[in-house]
Amino acid sequence: MSNNKWWKSAVIYQIYPRSFADSNNDGIGDLQGMISKLDYLENLGINAIWLSPVYKSPQDDNGYDISDYRDIDPMFGTLGDMERLIAEAGKHNIRIIMDLVLNHSSDEHHWFQEAKKSRENPYHDYYVWRDGKEGVPPNEMRAAFGGSAWEWVPEIQQYYFHQFSVKQPDLNWENPKVRQEIYDMINWWIAKGVGGFRLDVIDLVAKEPDRQITTNGTRLHEFIRELSRETFQKADLVTVGEAWGATTQLAKLYSNPDNSELSMVFQFEHICLDQVEGKEKWDLSPLPFLKLKEVFARWQKELYGKGWNSLFWDNHDLPRIVSRWGDDGKNRTKSAKMLAILLHGMQGTPYIYQGEELGMTNVAYGIEEYRDIETLNMYKERLENGYKEEDIMKSIHAKSRDNARTPMQWNDGKNAGFTDAVPWIKVNPNYKEINASQQVEDENSIFNCYKKLIRLRKDYPVFVEGDFKLLLAEDENIFAYIREDEEAQLLVICNFYGQTPECPLEDMASSMELLICNYEDIEQPATLRPYEARMYWKAKK
Ligand code: TEU
Ligand code: CA
Question: Whose CA is nearest to atom 17 of ligand 1?
């Protein structure tokens, strides 16, 4: 198998720009702030940064509503700063991956401003319109952030379609002119030296609203192949599509090794395990451990040699993993390392979301501290629908996107060293114990565990090449697997809970070399300690 693409042994770090580092003390992170932290990132060892959107935007959805794809929002800096970031990151051997939001634009984009002027306007057809009568939308489709997916424009007596907020009108991919505009824009960024792209909700672009189809539309893969041919294939880029609707079958199309579509996708099967069919993410239910193992094992196995996995626990839309599958109280350090060791031993490209390398946790604020449009709209809607405020807050504390969006915790000084001003969203009060400057110095920190895992991936080819076999599939506490290629074996054993189960893999492990673990005294007892994780390696003769 040829696994020689640079991004197959790379580790990618996601930055959420407004929460990373504020250089000019206006309370919002920015590009100069990122530049000032490149030494920190190089020390961690990552190879690329995926930057959530920094384009010009009214910030209705924190930049996922773009009003100019070829400019930077003044809040983050200038186009010159962006060019400096690309160049400076390059000196640290770090590539910059831009976030492409191609399913929709902002309603303040000049295309939409023109489009809504008249049905004859040349830009009208850049968006998805349907005739109708005021108050009688074309169908019942709902938007992800609440309300109808159709918005009435009285001036032209038509509805436009939006899968997200009313300020995020859907682009019409059926129109070849729209696709061409997109390709030109992407090629313009490629010429600036970016290292790749993350494609926001790429599985929604081929929507067919008349058939009430949004995900995986009929023309989806035709569109992606054209996009790839016209842009990405001309350079040595990494591309990752966000695809909530991906199955392993579809992922093999998206990440076909023939390079006809993308490098890989983000799929969410391992993330949505506590979401009951037909319910919303806010309706809480327990996390099924055996199912987690089954899902990872299936994705590892199905894509082996036929596609490529992305590996992630966290992003800017998800609650913090240590508060989800780990223990963010007494066993925070142990469990955060365990989750890291589990994920980073698998085949695929690992992604680290800012603060994950410190074991940053969820927050539990009062509603007035929340900023996220999805959270705020849901709060309003559920109150109106008679939910108890207490239950709504419970859902928010568990699932709000703002859990991931609190400022990066750099040190134990004012506002965690993020800003001198009032931050746009409150800092997690636990920054005195959880912060980067403390962890960089401490060789037993979560940070240094991530750093070591990144190093191991570079040093041992089996991380990239090896196949995957799940062990102890029915065990209620232990997640264990073995990876194997022609040269070596890699064994990962993780105790997922605070119990002390017996470890039936002791014999196998005893002939192998311990690469990394999350306890300092390594006496290899027959039982695993709370959240204990160990990774072993052995050469084949
Ligand atoms: O998210 C896609 C998406 O479907 C989200 O609405 C997701 O369902 C939700 O965040 C889960 O709580 C992408 C971006 O990652 C997100 O930040 C944007 O808000 C969204 O697209 C619209 O661009
Ligand atoms: Ca700033």
Answer: 317
